[in-house]
Amino acid sequence: MKAWLALLARELRLALRHPGDSLAAVLFFVLVAALFPFGIGPAPEALARLAPGALLAAALLAALLPLERMFGADAEDGTLDQLLLSGLGPSAVAAAKAAAHWLTTGLPLLLATPVAAAMLNLPVPAWPAAMAALGMAAGFLSLLGTAGAALTLGARRGGVLLPLLVLPLAIPAVIFGAAGIEAAAAGLSPAPYLLLLGALLAAALPLAPLAAGAALRVE
Amino acid sequence: MDTADAPPLAGPAPARGGSLHRFANPGRFLRLSGRVLPWLSAASLLVLAVGVAWGLFFSPPDWQQGETVRLLYIHVPMAWLSMGGYVGLAIGSVFALVWRHPLADLACRELSPVGALVTALCLATGSLWGKPMWGTWWVWDARLTSVLVLFFLWLGHAALVRAFDDQERGARMGAILALIGAVNVPVVKFSVDWWNTLHQPASVTRINAPGLHVDILYPLLVCALGFTLAFAALVLARVRAAVMERRIRTLQLAAARRAESPAMQAAARGVEG
Fold first, then answer.
1. pTM (predicted TM-score)
2. What share of chain B is helix, strand, coil (3-state, %, to 5)?
3. Inter-chain contact A168–B152, Cβ cutoff 8 Å?
4. Residue B134: CA atoms inside 13 Å, Cβ hemisphere, count?
5. Interface subset of B 175-204, CB within 8 angstroms of A
6. What are phi and psi of B166, to 5 degrees?
7. b/e for B161-185, b at 16 or more Cβ within 10 A?
8. Bridge partner residues of B66 (DSSP)
9. How many CB atoms are located within 10 Å of the residue B10 CB?
10. Contact predicate A197/A129, CB 8 Å
């Protein structure tokens, strides 16, 4: 556990020294959210109708951005081999990477959610549900994305392949997350949808690092 | 001491691969599959000719759907094959990952393009049927969405396996992806029961009795058998071609090395002299 925390701390320190990466993902998220009003016109009702899905789609696309380099830099300079020899299991390494990805990309996106929600004219009572849905959906994507990044490590055109592998599997998170936000915007309880999203997250939590670890072990 | 007459190490002899690895020998596989393939192809063509003719010309039109029902003689077998094929891919991936069976690697690699084609045909025929029957080409119903995800999984597998310079690494990555994607198969199967949306629930494999009249059921089953045989024949032919391709590449590499070595030796002598 101590080694795992040390690895997580290393990832976070690295991210802190390059704050531009997290910032770029947040800016991308806000910009995509800002494109929708231009695309469909600024009518408030139309925007509010579209906001749940647009928020989730924008957040998932933004969270995909840093995945391509998740293992790339470490594999090039040999750090990855060191990590795999460190006594931590490959799955534990993958889990640390996923946790770091969520903390450095998912969490900033969560903080930017109110800005994007305001731009898309989402009713204020739905904002907590939106933040809960985005937080869990981003966590789901961090886990899936870690598996995808481990699978495409060393592949030609890995950056193009990664979204092709990860996004179809992320569809359930979009469905349940958007349904939850929509329910909250209509004044209903978002709990059933958010609980389903939580179940997805709970299933991915052990399975995705396992798959990513199996892929990392192939050398 | 000569290693040839060294005493055997203590402990039991390493297990021979047993029946599992008998077909890992490419020569044996090529001989056996070469004998099976013509029969398999002929059988699939024969059954398909009977099934398609029966379904398209000699079966009665449905009382509600009219002639459009004939699309289902293609659509339903393709849907079954897209799911059954993926289950086959997952089983092959387990063999490839656990027992490192070289033939399972090749079979998975050659299975996914055929699987993607079958799933695309399932989606296309379903869409053509949906326009006159449902009044729309496409709805985001649970069954359609999960089959679309299945299609992307097939394509992703085909692309991932071929994306590595090291073929073995590609095969392992593809096997892991196939097992991740296997979570989608039960979702496809039970989507019509879990969500009450537009696509009808299973009507052939009901517990008590099929929900189809025998006039439609029998040609459908013959078509399904024919397409399954054709699927198997296509995959087998592709695996044979892949084995031969690998063999040709090895021969060419060996030939290039042979052609190169006298020239290299001459060059080396030139540098030394």
1. 0.82
2. 80, 0, 20
3. yes
4. 15
5. 176-177, 179-181, 184
6. -90, 110
7. bebbeeeebbbbbbbbbbbbbbebb
8. B62
9. 5
10. no
Q: Please work out, in degrees rounded to the nearest 5, the angle formed at the alpha carbon of residue A51 by the alpha carbons of A49 and A55.
A: 155
Across chain A, how many H-helices and E-strands are there?
A: 10, 0
CB contact under 8 A, B149 and A169: yes
What the block records as the tokens of A113 is 């959610």
- Write out chain A's pLDDT in tens, 219 residues: 888 898 899 989 988 888 888 888 899 999 988 888 888 877 878 888 888 888 999 999 999 888 888 888 888 888 888 888 888 889 999 999 999 999 999 999 999 998 888 888 888 888 889 999 999 999 999 999 999 999 998 888 878 889 989 998 998 898 889 889 988 888 888 888 999 999 999 999 999 999 999 998 876
Distance from CA of B100 to the nearest CA of A (A): 12
Torsion sign, CA atoms A184, A48, A123, A108: positive
Query: Which tokens sit at B28?
Result: 């044996």
Number of A:B CB contacts under 8 A? 55
Separation in Å, CA A143 to CA A34, A207, B84, B176 = 27, 9, 28, 15
φ/ψ of residue B17, rounded to 5: -55, -20
SS3 (DSSP) at B212: coil
Closest residue in chain A to residue B184, using alpha carbons only: A169
Amino acid at B115: G
